[in-house]
């Protein structure tokens, strides 16, 4: 499923959060007139990445049972519900799920992280 297949997917240009707020891995909800859209925003060096916050195994949020979403080595995103792991750069499934996380294109626009086109 692509992130745009979600009925609540925000339009390009929608502000997600202040860029200064992205210092690690942050699950959040983007609220628009389309509804609530669950997203994980993370800083990876100078890059900011985002994924739909829904594990493809059961479609529960990755932070369903806790807030520790990054592996000890910092390379993998973890599902707290059942332990699936995903590459933090691409969202590709590494273990515990048949497919990866849905990436959401984001960019920094001034002082904010926004949905990219």
TrEMBL record:
<keyword id="KW-0411">Iron-sulfur</keyword>
<dbReference type="Pfam" id="PF00355">
    <property type="entry name" value="Rieske"/>
</dbReference>
<keyword id="KW-0479">Metal-binding</keyword>
<protein>
    <submittedName>
        <fullName>(2Fe-2S)-binding protein</fullName>
    </submittedName>
</protein>
<dbReference type="GO" id="GO:0046872">
    <property type="term" value="F:metal ion binding"/>
</dbReference>
<keyword id="KW-0001">2Fe-2S</keyword>
<dbReference type="InterPro" id="IPR017941">
    <property type="entry name" value="Rieske_2Fe-2S"/>
</dbReference>
<keyword id="KW-0408">Iron</keyword>
<dbReference type="InterPro" id="IPR036922">
    <property type="entry name" value="Rieske_2Fe-2S_sf"/>
</dbReference>
<feature type="domain" description="Rieske">
    <location>
        <begin position="13"/>
        <end position="115"/>
    </location>
</feature>
<dbReference type="GO" id="GO:0051537">
    <property type="term" value="F:2 iron, 2 sulfur cluster binding"/>
</dbReference>
